[in-house]
Design a protein that fits this description.
Elements (H helix, E strand, L loop, with lengths): L2 E2 H4 L5 E10 L2 E4 L1 E2 L13 E3 L2 E2 L2 E5 L2 E5 L11 E6 L1 H24 L4 E7 L4 E6 L8 H13 L5 E6 L4 E5 L6 E2 L14 E7 L4 E8 L2
Parallel strand pairs: 1-4
Antiparallel strand pairs: 2-3, 2-9, 3-8, 5-6, 5-9, 7-8, 10-11, 11-16, 12-13, 13-14, 15-16
Bound molecules: zinc ion.
Length: 213
Amino acid sequence: MTKKVFWADPYKTSLSTTVTSVSGPDITLSETIFFAFSGGQESDAGTIEDHVVSAAQKQGQEIVYTLADDHGLVTGQSVFVQIDWVRRYRLMRLHFAAELVLELFYKKLSGVSKVGAHIAQDKARIDFAWPESIAPLLPSMASDANSIIAADLEIKTAFDDEPNERRYWEISGFSRVPCGGTHVKRTGEIGTIKLKRNNKGRGNERVEIYLAS
Ligand SMILES: [Zn+2]
């Protein structure tokens, strides 16, 4: 199983490690900093020994990286992994912004349920099952989220079940939230956010989350 260094050190942008298996274009690594799509957060972009990673997929507790067919890497080989940090840092900031907004919705809108979420590099979105427009709520949601961001709270992350790789994050004033994504260390790193409603149809409300910078 790949050791996920992106949890212990989400700010690490390069890593020397070893290939543990090769199957055609697909390889696995003994350790990794390269996040694979899960919980709505998109995969990192980057290279393994200068080969561009075209896909990163979770398979159980393993992560499989797809390279070009002619990569030529072999099991046991030492490799250098690099990720696109500009992309990852935006994904981390938007990921936490989305989680914060979601928790505020749960606090303020009794009975609301999340039906989907996606974190990309330019924006995040959360879809809710809710019978009315969320537009009137957004100014106070944004204001509350931006206050928590401005307070620059510590974001604690840890395992609550290490063998099964279950992790959580926690900030002051909120319950623990289960999440296996990558997290910034403090809320202040997110910077000011903006919220926008996007009506997806009857009973389905979408909030889009943008970073001011
Ligand atoms: Zn998270």
